[in-house]
Every structure is written in structure tokens, then in C-alpha cells.
Request: fold
Amino acid sequence: MATKYKMRALRTLTLSAAFLCASMSGARADQPPPNHLNWTAKDHARAADAAFAAVPRVGAGTSQTSMWVQLAEALAKSGDQSRSGEAALNAGSLLGSKSNFMSFRPRVDTFPRWFA
Amino acid sequence: MADADKLAAVDGPPSDRMRLLGMLGAAYAKAHDPVGVARAVAQINAVKQDTPVTGQRDPRDNALAEIGVALAEVGAAEGAVALAAKMADGYYKVNVLSHAAFARCANGKTGGDDAAAKMAGVVASDLSPDTNTVARTSSLVAAAAALAACDGPETARRFLRENWPDQETGQALSQTVRVLTAAGEVSAAIDLAPPPDPASPDDLLHAAQLSQRAGDLKGARRLALQASAAARKGQTDSSQPYVRPDRIHLLSRISSLLTDIGAYDEALETMQSIDPVNRRQFYRRVLSTEAERHDGPAIERTLPGVMKGILEPTPAPYMVRNDLSDLVLTLAHAGFRKQAKVPFDAIATAPSPPSLPLADPTLARYAAAQAAMGDLPGALKTASAAGPLVAQRSGAEKNVMALMALALSARSKEDLVSPQALAMRQRMASSFPTIHPGPQAAALVAIATELASEGDVAGALQAEAGLEKVPGNDLDGARDTALAAIAAEQIQAGQPEAALETTLRIRQDAARLAPLLKLAALPVHP
Reply:
């Protein structure tokens, strides 16, 4: 794989990994108060399963990498570290896909607000 | 955390590795993780460069500066200063020091005479004049900004006078003001800014923007009105509207600022000097801002003028009806249904679109406007009358579509007339599906998405049900768009279980993913 693609992919993944680590270890002070009191573990599992099934069927290469990272970030927000890590690893397994790696940037700008 | 470090430990050119580690360290800094920051700094320092690059382009200092600026931005100014001490003299070091100074001097914390700002000044002024000019001037500007934020405008002006060739001091001041503004040091920027040239609309607009950011709305309004007058001064004949894009852009920025600060009448007045077609969007923008802010008196005051502007004849046949429908949606959405009746009633008397062998493209928006006004049966009737649910494209239609697509992407006339272009057009035309959602489907989607966004899930589902009448997948795109809008509203309304059921009805994975990501992010309740 061309080094430049690898570096771009890693840039994306490194930031998202840092994001995940941070999101898992810290308090989420400014999360809106939950208004979905009946959302159960079973519901969460169904939504996560459906998302895991959908991502590989949408896009390829970079766009799919970005979707796995988005899913990993979403699951990290829910507190589901295990499946979040699984999605992040799926993103990592796509290393080497070509083109357009720069189209997605993990939202590192949200760090300070999360940890205020 | 170890996973992130592992990801950063890759083979690659040393400069790329350092850059990557710099970004990782900055991410740790923003996550308030000093251990992660220290590890990233140590890893950057451990990277061996095959051909060491030092000075202004040193990738090591570039990476360290990324971390230093991030530290300063999250308030860890001491950490940023300590990091700067390990860097070679140059722009990167000055940049970190100036950000540390901003953090320390914000809201008068140090009471002036800040060590980081002083150090930034010393490093920048000691840079040899032989140093790359861009790096040197950027260093001087960054240091001047730090001094302005900490020690006041006089110190910064003196610093620039002493270190910058006389003839360019004005330019240096402007650059420094922009650096301060970007860093959020607005009051320091205002103190330092030279008085705007009363003949320059750009200068006046910039000064108005500074005042707005500082919360001085009265001053912002005064300066924006001066900018507006200066911008229109060159117009010798008021019957000849401006059509030049650069002039329209300038007036648009002034008008947007006036809209933002609530000077709606003046915002509209500013746009009177441009051509009527381009002017229409500003009527919609002003009304939309008023509606978002639930400013009833402003809506009452500006609505007659807005209506007059929107009802002006245009060369585009559908524009008036579509704009009126948009006004209805904007007002009804914000709860101003009584006021929305004014544009809604005007649709009935607006000029009819010319009779063409095509579906009326204003009907979908009109149906959505009817739904927004509470007339769902009427909206569904409009949808039925719009045309078939599923339509077929003729070969001629496909050819026209292909020609339009080609024309939009062509770089020259040859791109349109060459034999290759003909072959491409034929290939493109044959790739368009023959069966596609018809005008009735478009209207039903518009109704469903409008009602969903207003929180009327039952009404939205009723409209969506109309899209289920056709077996097969021909309407998948339309129904999935409607269902995704309904699911989004259900999530917003705190009904994720219902949203999940709606989402699982979506057939196309791409449309399904957006609500699924929102649902996957919800914490579980035990």
C-alpha cells in the first residue's frame, strides 16, 4: 500500500482512537438529559446490530472507514465500549483503501466541551 | 489509550510520524490527559530524522507546536510555556508562546506585563532578517498580538514600529487585529484596530464585525450602516441595479450582519440596490431569522415589504410560487400560522406556471405548505392531482438529462461536441432508470418530511402510507427519505423504540444509517 494513503488513514484513525479513549474515560458533562427512559439493552443491541449490518453494504474504502469510525464514536457515547472497539477495529481493517481519506475528520473539537 | 499510541507507532517518513504524533498529542491535550501529552512529546523527540531539518521548517517543532497551542487553548498555559522552552527559536515557538499569553491574559488575569508575551516578543524580534520572510512576519504578528492582549495596544504598536519597516506598519496592524480576532481576543483587537477608512466598505464592515463580536450591537449597527452607504456610493444610477458578483457579495455580507444584529429593515434596505432576482433570497433570509428568533413584532413590521419583494415579477416562472410556499413553511414552522396565511393566500393569485408537458414543479412545495397550515386532506388532494406515483422516462427525456449533466461538467465547447462526448452522452442516457418516483411521490415526501419536522408523526405516517401503494422497489428512495425524517423526529421526541421500528422499515442501507447512528449513541436505561 502506498505510504501516503497509509499515513492519511492512520491520521484519521489515530484521532478517532484518541477520541474513543477520551470519551470512554471521562465524564460527559454537557450531554443533554436523557428523555428516552425506556431504551433498553435489547433495543440498543438491535440498533447496533442493524448498524453493523448496514455499514459494509454502504460505500467502500474510505467512505466505509469513515462510517465505521462514526459508528465507533456513536457507540462510545452510549457507553458500549466493547462494540465501539469492534467498530474501530473494523475501520482499522480497511487500512489501505485508496483515495479521499481526508474527507472525514473525527470531531476532536468536541473534546473540550465533553470534559469541561 | 494504548490503542491510540499503537496506531501512531507506524512505519513511515519521520516527518509524517512526527506530524501524526503531534496531532495525537493535541488530541490528548484537548482531552485533558497530561500523561498522554507527555508520552506523545517523548515519542516525537525519539523520532530519528534521516536528514535532520532544523530552523523554520523543523517538523519536530511543528509537531510540538500543535500540542503547545492545544495546551494553551484548553487553559494549560504553563504546560505550553514549558513545551516552548524546549523548542528552537522561530515561528512555531512564538506561536505557542503567544497562545499561552492569550490564555494567561484573558479577562485581565495577569494585569499586563506577561512573561509569555514578553518572551514571544523577544524571540520574534531576535529572528534574523535573513530568516524566511513569511515566517519572520508571522512571528512578529503573533508576538504583537500577544503583547496587545497582555500589555495593551500601545506596546503592540511600539513593537511593530520597532521591528517592521515603516511603510508596512498599517498592514502589520491589520494582520495583528485579524490574529487577535481569530483567537477570540476581541476587545484587544478593537483597541488595536486602526480607525476604519470611511470610504472603504470592507474596512467599515470589519470594524462592525469586531464590534458585534464584542457585544457592542449599537456600534456594530452604526458601522454596518456606514459600510452599506459606502458600498452603494458608487452606484450612479439607482435604476441600474448592481449585478456584479463581488458587489453583491459585499452587500450580502453587510446585510447578513445587519440581519444578525436584528436590524432587519436596514438589512433589506441594503439589498435594494442589487437586481430583483438575487434580492429575493435576502427577503427569505430576514424573515427566516425573525421566525427563528420568534420575533413577532419584527415579522409584522417587515412582512408587507417582504411580500412586495417576493411578488415582483421574475423571468423564472416557478420562483414566485416556490418562494411563497417557502415563506409559509418558515412562518408556520415557527408557530406564526396567522402571519403564514398572508403568503399562503397569495399563492392562489400568483402567476401560474406556464403549461408544459411536465409535472408542475411547484406542487410538492405547495402541498407541504398546505400541510404546514393544518390542511392535511387538502395537501393529500394536491399530491394526488400532481400526477402519477410512479413515472416513466422517455428516451428523449434521458437524452436531455444526459446533455444537461454533460454541459455542467464540460470544461470547453469541445467537451460537448467531440465523438467521445457523444458516446458518453449515450452511455449516460442509457444508465438512467426508466421507472422513477413520480410527482405524486415527490409531494407525499414533502408533506411527510414537513409534518415530521413539526412533530406531527401521525400525519407524516399518513402521508408516507401513500408511498406504500406501489409494490416493488421503485419508490424506495422516496419512502426511505420520508421514514428517515419520521425516525429523526421520533428520536428527538424521546421515543427511540418507535424510532427504531420506523428505522428498520427503511430499505436502503445508506438512508438507514443516519438514524441508526443516533440510536446507537443513546445510553441504555437499566
In short: The helical segments of chain A are 3-25, 41-54, 61-78, 81-93, 111-114. The radius of gyration of chain A is 15 Å. Chain A touches chain B through 54 residues (CB under 8 Å).
